[in-house]
Each structure stands twice: as structure tokens, then as C-alpha cells.
Amino acid sequence: MAKATTVIRKIDVSPEEQRKKELKELEDSIVNNRQAIIDSIHLIQRIHEKGILHIVESMLGQSDKILDRVVLSLDHPEVTGSIKNAFLLLEVLGKMDLKEWEPMIDKVNTALTRMVEVQQSDKEKKEGTMLSMLRDTEVREGMSILLAFVKGLGSKSEGKEEKEVEKGKQNSESRKFNKNWLLFIGGAAVMSIPLFIKRK
Amino acid sequence: MTEKFEVTVNGEATSVSNQKSVMQLLNTENIDIPSLCYLPSLGAIETCDTCIVKVNGEYVRSCSTTIRPNDEIETVGEDIHEAQIIAMDRILGNHELYCTVCDFNNGNCEIHNTVKEMKISHQETDHTPKDAEVQRNAFYRYDPDQCILCGRCVEACQNLQVNETLTIDWDLKRPRVIWDKDSPIEESSCVNCGHCSTVCPCNAMMEVGMEGEAGFLTGVKQQSLRPMIELTKNIETGYDSLLTISDIEATMREERIKKTKTVCTYCGVGCSFDVWTKGRQILKVEPQEEAPANGVSTCVKGKFGWDFVNSEERLTKPLIRDEEGFREVEWEEALTFIRSKMTDIKTNHGPDSLAFVSSSKCTNEESYLMQKLARAVIGTNNVDNCSRYCQSPATKGLWRTVGYGGDSGSISDIAQAELIISIGSNTAESHPVLATRVKRAQKLNGQKVIVADIRKHELAERADLFVQPAPGSDLVWLSAVTKYIVDQGWHDEAFLAAHVNDVEVFFESLTPYTLSYASEVTHLSEEELISIAERIHEAKTTSILWAMGVTQHGGGSDTSTAISNLLLVTGNYMKPGAGAYPLRGHNNVQGTSDFGSMPDRFPGYQFVTDENVRQRFEKHWGVDLPSEPGLNNQEMVEAIHEGKLKALYIKGEDMGIVDTNINHVQAAFEKLDLFIVQDIFFSKTCQYADVVLPASPSLEKEGTFTNTERRIQRLYRVMEPLGDSKPDWEIIMAIANQLGGNWNYKHPSEIMDEVASLTPLMAGVNYDRLEGYKSLQWPVAADGKDTPLLFTDGFPLPGGKAILHPVKWTQPLAFTGEYDIHVNNGRLLEHFHEGNMTYKSKSISGKTPNVFLEVSDQLAAERGIKDGTKVRLTSPYGSVKVSCLVTDRVKGKQVYLPMNTSGEGAINYLTSSHTDKDTDTPAYKEISAKLEVIEEDGESPLPRKNHRFGTPQPQVGVNVEGKWRRSDYIFPGDLVRERRRNHG
């Protein structure tokens, strides 16, 4: 039996009562999780002793500015380049079939050792003319390996093209990358030829 | 024509049995091909070119190529892959991949997933900005720099929602999506239905609620975001690492973002969708293609109208009235108070001095409990619901003629009908998603639409034939059309002979409804009447949709009967695409009556006067039950005035605003000894209460709703009840138990099981069968078989036959000279009914802040009215004050006052207590008033940014031909062929 009214009086929870209620909730939560809380406190104590807490606090306080600065510094071509190259290097490592190369690596090792020996030798170890060298079986074997290498460099890269289409994209960048590797190795090989030419 | 034929796919023969696209065939064969723009709900769009395969040696798009016998289809090959990559590359040129800091990276970004599946690691075409601004409004935003021009949004806007606002301007140097003629979104015709943001495959078109909220890093402020994106791009060696990291981040998000299915709480279409929440914060509403009623469609309310759930105005504690007003109390005090008062009144005045009103917004289970409280605990049949205000006449008309009071079929039937007749329904605004099916069928599939309404609303503008009969005269033209059809011999004789009784008597009764009589009464020309009859005759299937324009009249039941008669005479039942479709307004107005909140019916429409039925319920409930029908809500108001009704318990109903003649109703409230109101907000009705109980809306509880298709769907709890509010079923149970009910339901599924055991109509309904997006349309047999299309096995009436029921015209209320303005009233698209929920959304209120009165040009000129003029309308029952809007949607002395207000402009201060003679539904549409100008100058009630001022740009879909015509376009298949030719 009533006239329309819009007057609504909210329940007066006195501030003390509200606080009591909230404290009780907190208390319950702490007691129920006491082991985790005790362990966390030990951990925090350690961190505090090392001064790390202060560091973290400050970093978080200034996080916006710090983020801007970090992003700014990362955004240098050299930095991004080197991070990118690091990733690429990892990928190239994946592409190399090192297992097949293993026997070759032994041979290269031997080649390098001999190379060093020749370098360090006195003039008594000289071998004679190039023609006499060619009669040496070891030399002939080494030459055929080198030739095979050179032939490989010069071959038309059909197999490679197929693979790239399968992957779906002509990767101009990585092609450049591969080219660079090849040039480097090729150049290194060429550079090492004089070492086989006898110094009189 | 479903002959099987052979095709070869990648060398293997397969047989195909129906016309499909190549893409559909490949999907059924589980062969993966990329696709970006294709969406089953929209069909083939042909803008992305990624689905290219080879058919008979030619490169084609698989989405739009139909299979023919002996086709040879290849999906694997370097050249095919190359073509797909070219297409994908162009797309990446339009979209920056910064997935880890993108709000859309939730596992369902189609660009991200396609890049992953195609193992793309680099793009050849660099992404460049398009030099166009981000378009934004309060609901969603468009970032042109992320837009891949797939055109899904345009397709959806043009061909699914058919609002026709979006297009892609292919002639720009860098094409992008534009609104209207390239207006800002706020000034366009966009209705914010949300289709575009739903179908967008990436983050280009995205809901504002997601921005900065969905990811762990997406909230980073703009300043740091750009350099971070650049950094990531410079470091990335390829997309593999990018995708891996962003996939991890996307998975992490699932820990924080909850995705829950619910059913919309607004209108009777019953859209269902997932709601994404972070705690109580709603990020977005994500419709799903598998949703049975709506698929990917929504309207502004369902997609964006959920602010009310977290509104500060929510009731969170029970209130009890004392001398000074209301005070907040704890539940215990409120329940004790209710128990003592209710017991007193029942003891001193008998059970029939209490009455109960159920809500058409609450769940089926809650409706059942309310009527069980009334009947089993109190001992009265005084229980009703708000379908009394709108749908009872339609239900009555259908009971009389075909036996079931519900839609004959589903929304898909409406979509496939050859002819739609819409009578007294503003479908595009009141049932937006349902209207989209009609608009789409008309635009793309040749469906014909006839609209009969006194007002020129959106569907009327699109109609193939639009007639404006005199208000309340529909029965006359319907009967005249029926008579004409019979006279021409166009009636379906075979159907009538096999399935209908009382045919001859009915034909006799049509005699007075000659064309000339009808023309005189309805003011429609004889040509128009004949045209309607001809169109019905020519269409193989006709569905008639109707709503309040028919039912809210003194002869509403009879008019609904006339509609059903017409359908029977023309054989438009028992087949897909045909039938009667009274469009239910609220999300659960169908269900609330189905589950028994009616004074003369138990759940499933079983009569309370039927002794066998009553005994069954008495046995299960363990009490004796009253055998006399109780009061409906109109009768309740009179009974209060007469002093016979002392207590009223209302849930989820703002009766003090939505009933007619609210001066009368509010006066009744003041006389009650006990008035309990249960609601989510402190509504106008609450102001009169003695006790106010805080309830939970749909997102905070479990239950089911039944939509206009008789489809029962489950809603799942998205978040916990706010404050001390509780789901309505828990409150009713608590009250029942205070009064000795001894109920102990632990979950609504138990309530549903109880209903199923007592109700043959729902015998097979249980929550397992309704899990996820599954649904059931009643009648549901005990084995779970439901009934999408009614009457296929005959009619649930004597002999299995329908009945033709003669009806006579009831003249609408006549008003004397000074009340010369006919006040039409009804709904708006963006506000739901009186706006108790939608006004809590600032975005929606921003576009439509007030109620307004639509006034015709003629009337405006006559009375000196312009936009913003404030007027007073006065009827014999009350008066309202409201601001005017001059428009051609109304004509002559007819005005339109939408119902979206509880203030001084509320329509029901004008309406009378006159009702439908058969069901007591108030005749809201029969009201006239006199008009006085109060203030000539004022601000227009509708701000410029309301969508009604926009200029839509109709076209059929995205117009991909515009893209193909560009000089810089070459089909990837052609490009691959050229390359191969050049390489020799």
C-alpha cells in the first residue's frame, strides 16, 4: 500500500565493520596458504639482502621510459643485423649436413697441418718442381678433391631451385647470403693455391 | 536433380551426387586448400584468389567453380602452389603481421593460420601504409592498413544484413572499405549490427571492446608499439619464429579470456553466440556459424548492448520499504518479511487474493517455478505473463484453426518461402536478424515481399507491394482476399479435402467481404486486393509474418484467425517455406507460456480444468490444486481496484510502464497490501513496491529460452551474480521454501527434468540434448525427436484436421472529434522496449538519447511543427509530453510514438484498458489523442549521428569485378602460366 518513491537508503556498513570484514578475509587467506607465504617471505628476504628488490622496484617505477630507451637502442641496424644474423647462422647450421662432411674434415685437418709444417719448415723440405709433385699420389688425390670442389661451385644450381619453389618463395635475401658464403669459400680456396706452388 | 557423376581428384576417381563448388567437394574429401575470403554463411566472394586449383588444366578459383561430370581436378603441384603463394603475397602486402601484439591473435585469425598452413616464411611484396585514417565509432573500428580487401564485411553488409552501407572503392589508388559515400561511420547509415566485425578474418574490422585488452602486450601504449613492431620485423628471419611466439602467446590468452555460449536476452529471434570475458569485462560477442537461429548474424543489441550487466545501477541488495522510503537489507530479513506477510494475507483473505506475474525475459525453468509457487504452494491459479500484452491473440487464432500456438516452422522456412506477407510488423527493427533472412532472400533469390502496415518502415520501403490499410482493418482485407481466391477457384481443393474441416460453413461466412466493401473499409483499392490474391496464387509457398499491428487490437484474435484461415484455404501449411509466423517479441515470451505461467493452463498448455491433467500434477507435487482458472494480468488490475486482490509478486516485468492505461495501473499498485518486485534495476514499477528483490540477468545464470521458432536453447553462466543478486529461480525457490514448499533443486537441469516428466509437449527435453549449440523445437518426443516443421503428420485437433473458423470484423475504438490524431506505437531497433537495459549503454544512448514523436509533413505544416518542437498529446486516459521529428514514415494525421522511455513521454499514459475481446490483450494500437504545441523551438530529439539520417549504397555484394577491372590486377593463374611460358 504505497505511493511511488525513489528514496533508497543503503546499508550503513560502518567503516570499522567493513575493515573487520576485510581483515578477516585476509587472515583466512594467509592461514590457508601459510606454507607458500612463509617460503615466499624467505625468498623475498634473500632478494632484499642482495639489494635486488630496490633495483626491480626502480625499474618497474620507471618502466615506461626504460622500455622506450631499450627499444630505441635495439633499433640500430647493427644491433638488429647482428641479432638477425645470429638467427640466420643458427638456420644455416641446420642446413649444413655436417655428418657427410666429417671424413672431409679430417682431411682438411691433415691438409692444414701439412700447410703449417711447410710454412714453418726450413728450406730443406722443398719438394722440387710442380711436375714432380704431380706424381705424388697424395698430391693427385688432393687435387682431384679440390677439382671436385671447383666443379661443384661451377655447377648449375637446379636442385637448389626446386627446393626453393617447394618452400614457396624465392628468397632473394638468403640467395645473396648463400652467394656470399660461396664466394668466401671460393676465394679462400683460391688464396690457398699459392701455398702449393713451391717456393724455390 | 541428384544424379551421381564421376570426377577425378588428384588422379583418384570420386563420385559426386549434387552440384557443389570444387571447394565444397575438396572439403568433404578432407583435402586442404587455402582460402581466406570464403565463408559458408556468405558464399563465394572471389576476392582473395588463394583457393586456386587446376580443373581440366585451367587455373580456377575453387570457391566459385561448380563441378561438372568428368572434371579433372588437381590441387597439388608447383604451379598451383605458386599461384596460391602469389595471391597470399598480395594479401600480406596489405596486412602487417605483428601477431604477438595484435588483439586478434586468439587462435582464430585466418591470415595467421593460413600463413602457418602454407609454411610461408617471407613475403615479396612489402607492406605499405595506405595513407587513410583509422575509422572508428563507439562500437567498432576499421584499420585500413590491416585490411586485406577480402570484402567479407561488404558481402555481409550488402547481402546478409542487407543494410547496404559498406562498399569497397576499387577505384581508389589504394582501395579500402567505405561507409555510405565515404562518410565517417558516425554519420553513415550503419546500424552497428556487428556483422562486419564478426566476419572479418583479421583485426582490420574489430570490436572496440577488444582493443588493447585481448593480449598480454596489446595494451602497450602507441609510442612503444610502433618501434616494437619495427624491431620484431627487423629481427625476424622468417615468419616461422614469429608464428611460434605468437601462437604461444595466443595459448596463454586462453587462461585469462573465457568464452561462454549464451542466448541473447533481447528479442524473440533467439540469437545465440559466445561471449568473451576477462573477469567481468566483456571483450566481445562472437557469433558462431553453427548457431541454429542466427548463424553469424546479430543486431546492435545482441552484439554490443551488454553494458547493463555491469552497470552501477544494478540492484545488489534486497530493499524493504519503511516510512521514509526503501532501505537495503540482507536476504534473511527480506525473506522473513515476505513469509510473514504472504502467510497473513493467505490466511485472512484466501489464496486467490494473491497473484503472480512471470517474466518473458526470465528462463523457462523460472517460469515453471513461478507457476508452481502460485499453484502448489499458495493454491491459486492467478498467474500470468506479459505475452498477454502482445501474443495471446495470435496464439488463440492458431489454437482455433491448427491446434498449436506457435510458428509453423523455422527461420529457414521464412528464408525459403516464395512469398512473404508481413502484416503489422516492423520486422527490420523488431526482429532484425529474422528480417535479414527476408531481405537476403528478396535481394538474391527472387523472394517476393508484401507489406501491410500503416507506417512506412524499412521493410515497407523494400517491399514489392506495400499497402497501407486503415488502422485495425486487416481482418477485412484478409477476408476479402480469401473470398476472391475462393471465387476464382484458386483455393487448394485437395488440401482442404484431406486436411480441413468446416470448409463450406467458412466459405459461406465470407459472403459480406466483397472487394468493394473491403475497399471502402480499408481504403485499399480493389486492384491492390486483387494483386495480393494473385501473388499468393502464383507463389508455391507463402509465409505470413505478423506482430503487434495485428494482435494489439480489439479483434486481434479474430484477425490472427483470419490469417490462418487464408493459409489453410491456399494450402500453405504442412510444407517447408509455408505457414503462420506470429513473431514473438521477447527472448522467452514463447517459453514463459509454454512452461505454464498462464491462469488457465499448466505447462504444455494442458488445461487446469482437465481433471486427469490436474491429478497428474497433484500426484507429482504432492498437493491438491485449484481447479478454476485464475486471473490474467488485466483482470488482476481490476481485482486490485475492487479490493479482491491484496498481494502481487512480479518478476522481470516493468508492468507500471508497459501495461496499458498506466495511470490506472499505477493507482492499483498503490492499493496493494503486499507488492513484491524482482528485477535487475530499480524500475518504475519498483517505486511502488514493498519489497524489491535483486535478480540476475541471463549472463549470470543457467537455464533455457524458447525463441519464436519454438526452439529451446541453453544459456550458460558467463559470470557470477553481481553483489547479492541471485538468479530468479533461486529466489523463487527460497520464497517457496519459506512457505513450506520443500523444494531442493540444485541446478535448472533438474527443473527441466521435472517439467519433461509432466509435459507431453516437452517429454524428451533434457540438458544433455541441449548441450552447446544443440537445440530442440517442440513438440519433443520422449526419444528426443523434435519438430522443426509442424503439422507434417496432421493437426493436433479432432480427426487430425485443421478447422476453418469464421470471424467477424471488430471495429477499432472510435474517438470523438477533438481526439483526432491517431497514435501508432511500437518498437525501435536500437532500444529494447522501454530501454531499461539499452539506455545503460552509453554508446547506444549516444545515438538515440530520447523518445521522439514521428510527425508527417502534412501534419507538421498544418500545426507549425518542426524537428524539435515539443508537443503534448492528451487522450481520455492521460497525457504525454514529447519532442517531434518530421518524417515521411508516417502520413496524414497518424503519428508514431515509440515506446522507449519510462519518463513523461511513455506511450501508456495515453492508452486505454480496452482489450481484445477473446484474450484480454490490451488494444495498444487503438488510441487517438489531441495534440497541442508546447514549445515550438527545440533541439531535434534524434542527433545527426543516428543511422536514420545516413544514405545507404545498395549493390549486390562486394562487386569484385571492380577489382578485376583495375589495370594493376592480373589473375595469379594467368601470371603463373605466363611465367612458365617465358621459362620455356
UniProtKB/TrEMBL annotation, chain A:
<keyword id="KW-0472">Membrane</keyword>
<feature type="transmembrane region" description="Helical">
    <location>
        <begin position="181"/>
        <end position="197"/>
    </location>
</feature>
<keyword id="KW-0812">Transmembrane</keyword>
<protein>
    <submittedName>
        <fullName>DUF1641 domain-containing protein</fullName>
    </submittedName>
</protein>
<keyword id="KW-1133">Transmembrane helix</keyword>
From TrEMBL, chain B:
<dbReference type="InterPro" id="IPR019574">
    <property type="entry name" value="NADH_UbQ_OxRdtase_Gsu_4Fe4S-bd"/>
</dbReference>
<dbReference type="InterPro" id="IPR050123">
    <property type="entry name" value="Prok_molybdopt-oxidoreductase"/>
</dbReference>
<dbReference type="InterPro" id="IPR006963">
    <property type="entry name" value="Mopterin_OxRdtase_4Fe-4S_dom"/>
</dbReference>
<keyword id="KW-0500">Molybdenum</keyword>
<feature type="region of interest" description="Disordered">
    <location>
        <begin position="938"/>
        <end position="958"/>
    </location>
</feature>
<keyword id="KW-0001">2Fe-2S</keyword>
<keyword id="KW-0677">Repeat</keyword>
<keyword id="KW-0479">Metal-binding</keyword>
<dbReference type="Pfam" id="PF13510">
    <property type="entry name" value="Fer2_4"/>
</dbReference>
<feature type="domain" description="4Fe-4S His(Cys)3-ligated-type">
    <location>
        <begin position="79"/>
        <end position="119"/>
    </location>
</feature>
<protein>
    <submittedName>
        <fullName>Formate dehydrogenase subunit alpha</fullName>
    </submittedName>
</protein>
<dbReference type="Pfam" id="PF12838">
    <property type="entry name" value="Fer4_7"/>
</dbReference>
<dbReference type="Pfam" id="PF01568">
    <property type="entry name" value="Molydop_binding"/>
</dbReference>
<dbReference type="InterPro" id="IPR009010">
    <property type="entry name" value="Asp_de-COase-like_dom_sf"/>
</dbReference>
<dbReference type="InterPro" id="IPR006656">
    <property type="entry name" value="Mopterin_OxRdtase"/>
</dbReference>
<dbReference type="InterPro" id="IPR041924">
    <property type="entry name" value="Formate_Dh-H_N"/>
</dbReference>
<dbReference type="InterPro" id="IPR001041">
    <property type="entry name" value="2Fe-2S_ferredoxin-type"/>
</dbReference>
<dbReference type="InterPro" id="IPR036010">
    <property type="entry name" value="2Fe-2S_ferredoxin-like_sf"/>
</dbReference>
<dbReference type="InterPro" id="IPR006478">
    <property type="entry name" value="Formate_DH_asu"/>
</dbReference>
<keyword id="KW-0004">4Fe-4S</keyword>
<feature type="domain" description="4Fe-4S ferredoxin-type">
    <location>
        <begin position="181"/>
        <end position="211"/>
    </location>
</feature>
<keyword id="KW-0411">Iron-sulfur</keyword>
